[in-house]
Amino acid sequence: MIIWGETRAGAMGVALAAAAAVLSALLICHWLPLDSVLERSFSLYKAHSVKDMENIFQLVRNIIPPLTSKKHKGQDGRIGIIGGCQEYTGAPYFAAISALKVGADLSHVFCTKDAAPVIKSYSPELIVHPVLDSPHAVPEVEKWLPRLHTIVIGPGLGREEALLENVKGIIEISKDKGIPMVIDADGLWLIAQQPSLIQGYQKAILTPNYMEFSRLYEATLRASLDSSDHHGCVLRLSQALGNLTVVQKGEKDVISDGEKVFVCSHEGSSRRCGGQGDLLSGSLGVLAHWALLAGPDKTNDQNPFLVAAFGACSLTRQCNHQAFQKFGRSMTATDMIAELGTAFRKLFET
């Protein structure tokens, strides 16, 4: 795992790229303990000391709520997934069931009428609302928003105009209510068409892959993407959107809130099966809630969404690694989800 530090736009981009290259070479040549990587990172960057930053994994561990018999159902997370249409029923299921397996108590899916019976058939654990294509979709979802801690927008959404208009309304109402949101998949396509819809809302986390990131970057900055400067581009997109948290998924996951950049290169595998992004978005929905709930003392005053995003990226990669060890080329997202429990314990509870 590589983490590198706080920055501003401009000349610092060169220093960031150089720091990342040096750290990557260090890890390739010989394994270094995380503390050593942090120390080298921050001494190269000269922005924050290790003492200021602490161990990012420890920060993730800090936000995980303890299991206790004194809690009631719902306290550890009520997550809503906004997505699922006739063509795409797997994605919202993957996101919703991942949220439960990470530790949320309740997982709701707000999908179209045709998708609902299919998604219900995948698991009795999910609460499924067949409302997303209703003329009254926005008020129907609005009734549930006070009960939800986080919403995940986009898995299996599709691009039908009527659905996208309903989702626009849901985003606006969620912003008014201050609800944290993770936006993925076709939710990102919607944002690329209208960046102002989310601009400046710092309780939003965007999780684009390379193509989604390119669309967002060009739509928001009105400039071509410089593929040789991943870290700088993620930083600039976050800044242009008003310092939202952006997670660019890829060979290494680059995470920025416009001020800091974390890079997660936790070992995964060479297998890129569909559905991994849904696992990430569902997991991130839970961790984002936990990070906010934990407060600044537990996150060492770091942006809670950066901590949550690093945790979700690491967890997804660990699931990928474990499932690939068992199934190799035949691995699917379902195999990865089955690894969530053991991967979580290995990373955050041992």
Describe it.
There is one protein chain. With 350 residues, this protein is α/β, with parallel strands linked by helices. Helices cover 50% and strands 12% of the residues. It contains 15 helices and ten strands. The chain has helices at residues 12-29, 34-45, 50-53, 56-63, 90-102, 115-122, 137-142, 161-177, 186-193, 210-221, 230-240, 276-294, 304-327, 333-338, 340-348, and strands at residues 2-6, 78-82, 106-111, 127-130, 150-153, 181-183, 204-206, 245-248, 253-256, 260-264. Strands 1-10-9-8-7-6-5-2-3-4 form a ten-stranded mixed β-sheet, sandwiched between helices. Helix 12 runs antiparallel to helix 13. The protein is globular, with a radius of gyration of 19 Å.
Write the H/E string, N to C: EHHHHEHEHEHEHEHEHHEEEHHHH
What gyration radius follows from the Cα positions, in whole Å? 19 Å
Computed structural class? alpha/beta
Q: What proportion strand? A: 5-15%
- How would a textbook summarize the main sheet? 10 strands, mixed
What is the strand arrangement across the widest sheet? 1-10-9-8-7-6-5-2-3-4
Chain-averaged pLDDT: 87
Mass-distribution shape = globular
Number of helices: 15
What is the terminal separation in angstroms?
17 Å
Instruction: Give the strand tally.
Output: 10
Helix percentage:
40-55%
Unreliable segments of 5+ consecutive residues: 1-54
